Amino acid sequence: MTLAPGPEDPHGASADPHGTSADPHGTSRSTSATIQPNILRYLVIVAGERGIDLRPELRQVGLDETVMRSAALRVSYRQGSAVIRRALELTGDERLGLKVGAAQHLTAWGLLGFALLADDTLRHAIETGVKYQNLSGAMTVWSTDLGEDGAFVLHADLPDPAIDPSVASFLIEEGFASVVTLSRLAVGSGFAPRAVEFSAPAPRQRELYGALFGCPVRFGAPADRIVIDPVWAGARMPGRDPVTYASTLEMLDAQLASRHDQQDLLEVLEVSVAQSLPVIPSFGEQARRHATSERTLRRRLADCGTTYEALAEGVRRERVEQLLLRPELTLRDIARRAGFSDERALRRAVRRWHGTSPVQLRERMLRGGAGHVE
Question: CATH: 3.30.1380.20, 1.10.10.60, 1.50.10.10, 2.40.10.10. Which one for 277-372?
Answer without folding.
Answer: 1.10.10.60
